[in-house]
């Protein structure tokens, strides 16, 4: 079967990604969103130097992002609009070099160190782990919580719609972040009560978020560490995009805490991206490896870690975006 030739040189280019990320970080697309703006003004508003900024923007114009209708004046185009802040389906916040994920991407320059077995890439790049960075920096931590919330856009409603969550009286979202999924579930199923368990920072954000969604009366927040015993008595314990942050041994410890809290009658529900033909799974696998030393898992591997925690996979629902909702029960 004929396939497209692979342009390895273009694939390995670092100039374009860094130019795009620099423009994203400086919010140039926001500055020019209403029409062409002189370079000096863009430099002033982005607190940068006009000469290097102009050279970056001229390069991006050649790549099809922004326009230069007259010398040293830059304007928007369709491509630049997707770099505006909060653009629907946009990428600015993910590419922002001052944000949690844009910064973490910079650790890829140390991929070779990790592959050679010398150092974890993130620590080699920044001197401490991703989690230590979030714990030290409220700005990075808030940025990460916001990115997790934005990722949730279409995904969370589809998770809430794809399972009959009203089978459960009480759902506990372990490592539930700001509580976006719990808010969606209790909003959609008025008889269900929810709990978010997370570390202190995200738990604080969850209190505010659940309040803002008007579901605080049916959704509580518990500050907790999922390596410690979890609040018992829920009918379902959810781990959404949590286990892929961890290597197998830690993932089994987290699952074991969920299984202990769940007892003999309740479900543990894992939500993770499953292997796909277009490569998102393998790309995310590398990101997990570099950012946090985690990994993506196919169903065989997921079944191995659930079995090690005393659970078995009872049902899998696959979502259009490639995530699986994997319902596990105690293996009695
Ligand atoms: C990738 S985020 C997923 C958040 C949320 N479940 C979602 O799908 O958007 C991982 C979450 O695990 C939380 N987390 C990390 N370590 C934790 C720990 N030891 N105990 C409890 N939560 C933890 C993080 O704070 C973060 O909210």
Automatic annotation (TrEMBL):
Record domain O-methyltransferase dimerisation: where: 14-83
Protein name: O-methyltransferase
Keywords, in A-Z order: Methyltransferase, S-adenosyl-L-methionine, Transferase
A single MF term (Gene Ontology): protein dimerization activity
Xref: PROSITE patterns: SAM_OMT_II
Organism annotation: Saccharopolyspora gloriosae
Transmembrane segment boundaries: none
Pfam families registered for this protein in UniProt: Dimerisation, Methyltransf_2
Highest rank taxon of the organism: Bacteria
Coiled-coil regions listed: none
Taxonomic path: Bacteria, Bacillati, Actinomycetota, Actinomycetes, Pseudonocardiales
Gene3D superfamilies, A to Z: 1.10.287.1350, Vaccinia Virus protein VP39, Winged helix-like DNA-binding domain superfamily/Winged helix DNA-binding domain
O-methyltransferase C-terminal domain sequence ranges: 109-310
């Amino acid at each position: 079967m004929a396939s497209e030739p692979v342009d390895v040189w273009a694939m390995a280019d670092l100039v374009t990604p860094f130019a795009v990320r620099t423009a994203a970080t400086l919010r140039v697309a926001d500055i020019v969103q209403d029409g062409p703006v002189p370079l000096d003004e863009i430099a002033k508003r982005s607190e940068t130097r006009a000469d290097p900024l102009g050279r970056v923007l001229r390069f991006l114009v050649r790549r099809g992002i922004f326009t230069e209708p007259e010398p040293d004046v830059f304007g928007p185009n369709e491509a630049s609009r997707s770099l505006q802040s909060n653009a629907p389906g946009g990428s600015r916040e993910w590419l922002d070099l001052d944000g949690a994920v844009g910064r973490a991407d910079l650790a890829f320059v140390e991929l070779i160190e990790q592959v050679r077995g010398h150092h974890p890439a993130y620590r080699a790049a920044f001197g401490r782990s991703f989690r230590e960075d979030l714990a030290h920096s409220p700005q990075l931590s808030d940025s990460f919580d916001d990115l997790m919330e934005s990722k949730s856009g279409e995904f969370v409603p589809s998770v809430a719609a794809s399972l009959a969550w009203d089978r459960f009286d009480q759902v506990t979202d372990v490592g539930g972040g700001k509580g976006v999924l719990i808010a969606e579930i209790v909003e959609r199923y008025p008889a269900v009560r929810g709990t978010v368990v997370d570390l202190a920072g995200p738990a604080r954000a969850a209190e505010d978020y659940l309040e803002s969604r008007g579901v605080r009366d049916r959704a509580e927040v518990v500050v907790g560490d999922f390596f410690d015993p979890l609040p018992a008595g829920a009918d379902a314990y959810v781990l959404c995009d949590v286990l892929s942050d961890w290597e197998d041994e830690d993932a089994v410890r987290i699952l074991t805490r969920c299984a202990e809290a769940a007892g003999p009658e309740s479900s543990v529900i894992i939500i993770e991206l499953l292997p796909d033909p277009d490569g998102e799974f393998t790309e995310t696998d590398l990101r997990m490896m570099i950012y946090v030393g985690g990994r993506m898992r196919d169903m065989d591997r997921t079944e191995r870690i659930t079995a090690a925690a005393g659970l078995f996979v009872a049902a899998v629902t696959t979502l259009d975006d490639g995530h699986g909702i994997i319902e596990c029960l105690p293996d009695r």
